[in-house]
Design brief:
two-stranded antiparallel sheet, mainly alpha, 2 strands, globular, about 230 residues
Length: about 230
């Protein structure tokens, strides 16, 4: 495991650069991969176990052109949810070398190879982000501070093992809140008129709300909510 400097308090640090195009490019790429997988899901044969969210969003995703797809992917919040608020689950996974049953045949899951690819990208990006800024990792990936500290210390081989063993833990964010996704798709379909909050603003509101309900709440979230 990679050793990282010990940090005890989460404080706002250079937050103005957090959401610039350069720093957000990897998150946009992660979002793009998720959207591509969702799009592929609706095209898989009906006889296969497909992700339900993809089926519920089929009409909206079909209407989305390339520019709309880009607008949705360029959301400052990771549209991938890896259950990072549950520090205990990830700590137990790191401490265990047990290999669970592959998730390929489980109902409503991405095909295993696609799922493990998404998982590796999400876990690696969450880890590198945590190494740079625990606060940014909390906000972008919906991580608890403890989970961010844990991932900041993980080596690439450990992350690869976690992605392989727990690919099914990495899911679309707000997977069971179809209306949230439908709203984002509607906002992404066309350029927004002046005065209408962009997709990223809506996503940030949801993310902050969920972090606010978590215990403990990270200092970055408290600062933004003031």
């Amino acid at each position: 495991m990679i050793a990282a400097p010990e940090r005890h308090d989460l404080e706002i640090s250079d937050s103005k650069s957090w959401f610039g195009p350069d720093s957000m490019a990897p998150v946009y790429a992660l979002n793009e991969l998720l959207l591509s997988l969702l799009d592929a899901e609706r095209l898989r044969p009906a006889s296969e176990n497909r992700v339900q969210l993809a089926l519920e969003l089929s009409d909206g995703m079909q209407r989305l052109d390339a520019e709309g797809h880009r607008r949705l992917a360029n959301c400052p919040i990771a549209l991938v949810d890896a259950g990072f608020l549950d520090e205990g689950r990830w700590r137990a996974a790191v401490d265990s070398s047990a290999t669970p049953t592959q998730t390929e045949a489980l109902k409503g899951r991405f095909p295993y190879q696609a799922a493990s690819r998404l998982a590796l990208m999400a876990l690696t990006l969450a880890s590198t982000t945590s190494q740079v800024s625990l606060e940014r990792a909390c906000l972008v990936f919906g991580m608890s501070p403890g989970c961010a500290r844990l991932f900041a210390r993980l080596s690439l081989p450990v992350l690869e093992s976690l992605a392989e063993r727990h690919a099914d833990w990495v899911r679309p964010r707000w997977e069971h809140r179809t209306r949230v996704w439908q709203t984002m798709l509607e906002l992404a379909e066309r350029p927004l008129p002046s005065g209408v909050p962009p997709i990223g603003f809506r996503a940030m509101q949801l993310q902050l709300g969920e972090l606010a309900l978590a215990t403990p709440i990270c200092a970055a979230t408290r600062q933004i909510r003031r």
